[in-house]
Design goal:
heterodimer, A: alpha+beta, two-stranded antiparallel sheet, 9 strands, B: alpha+beta, five-stranded mixed sheet, about 15% strand
Chain lengths: ~240, ~120
């Protein structure tokens, strides 16, 4: 079974939640879905990040029983639902609060579906709706998600994988997406702009990893973007 | 609150504090790694060269990257056009990452993207 087939099967199985208005797919699978025909060749992790705006939490919670044939809540991590079949990916629910400061985080308490709400996700805006074999899913705008990936501090193996998601977004971004990204970057406060530039330098130096997109051929594109940021709103 | 989410929240807040510290220190020694990464990001290729070759490049007027002098031990990092590299017989390509080969080189030549011909030999 290919990764694309697993991703599509997961979307099908999680359809009741994913089609809930307001819900966004926010993580590593976004570049895969943005590829032509949702080709899903930019694989960096084996889960599907489901962004739940806190205002939509109650509605999403009502849909959770429909997931039970295919997923079950993880006993270790209450915002993760693990698949009952190896042919599906894990669901990782994260909270989105559009009014939140990008540097903050809090826990949205709930006995059934508590969420860790990352402030950086407030930079994300709803974007294109895709029809994946009959399931209507909403992706974020590329610019905002790229900013979220680059404004968040990344360390270690997980950090590198997160930066490869940013790389995947860069690879699928249209020129207009990058213009929007630069504009949004310029509106950030200096500390966050610094984080974005720092993460881009890290991305430019990541080595290739087996089974993941090779960042090295994209180094020129990364530094071109970095130069645009420095020209548009960077500080030395 | 579940223990796992609480731990992740603490970790997230710690990262934000570290980032704030890094930002405050950006013009001091703590910022040297970003400055080094920034210089490397501009390079399409890197070579470890001999002291004589590096000094010859400086004498020719090629740009010296100040960040090299901030490191301990210091490095002489010189930026040159790609067509200057073949004249240095002992130039050894090193991968452009924060790895042992690059960090161990005392004399480093960087070729910026702008001047690199397509598919040149460095890794």
């Amino acid at each position: 079974m290919t990764f694309r087939e697993r991703l599509f099967a997961t979307i099908r199985a999680a359809r009741p939640v994913l089609e809930e208005p307001g819900v966004l797919i926010v993580g590593s699978e976004v570049p895969n879905l943005l590829e032509s025909g949702a080709a899903s060749t930019l694989v960096v992790s084996q889960d599907l990040d489901v962004g739940v705006p806190v205002a939509c939490h109650a509605a999403v919670k009502r849909q959770l029983p429909a997931l039970l044939p295919h997923f079950e809540p993880s006993p270790d991590e209450p915002s993760v639902w693990t698949p009952r079949s190896p042919q599906l990916l894990e669901l990782n629910f994260v909270g989105v609060d559009f009014s939140q400061d990008p540097a903050e985080a809090y826990v949205f308490e709930d006995d059934q579906l508590p969420l860790l709400v990352f402030g950086a996700l407030s930079l994300v805006e709803p974007g294109v709706e895709l029809n994946i074999e009959g399931s209507r899913i909403r992706l974020p705008r590329v610019a905002g998600l790229l900013l979220e990936k680059l404004v968040t501090d990344r360390t270690g193996e997980k950090g590198d994988r997160d930066l490869l998601v940013a790389l995947g977004l860069l690879m699928t971004a249209a020129p207009a997406d990058l213009d929007e990204f630069v504009g949004a970057y310029c509106r950030l406060r200096p500390e966050l702009r610094y984080a974005v530039r720092s993460n881009l330098t890290l991305l430019s130096l990541i080595d290739a990893r087996a089974g993941m997109p090779d960042p090295r051929p994209q180094r020129a594109a990364v530094v071109t973007l970095l130069r645009r940021l420095e020209a548009g709103g960077g500080e030395p | 609150m579940s223990a796992v989410l609480e731990r992740r929240l603490r970790e997230q807040r710690a990262r934000v504090l570290i980032r704030a510290h890094d930002y405050r220190q950006r013009r001091h020694a703590h910022g040297v790694w970003l400055r080094l990464r920034r210089v490397l990001a501009d390079a399409s290729a890197a070579y470890a060269v001999s002291a004589d070759d590096a000094r010859a490049l400086v004498a020719e007027g090629h740009a010296v990257q100040p960040v090299g002098a901030e490191l301990e031990p210091p490095k002489l990092i010189v930026t040159v056009a790609a067509d200057r590299v073949p004249a240095m017989a002992g130039a050894v390509p090193v991968p452009i990452r924060m790895g042992e080969e690059l960090l161990a080189a005392s004399f480093l030549v960087l070729v910026p993207f702008d001047t690199a011909p397509p598919r040149r030999g460095a890794p």
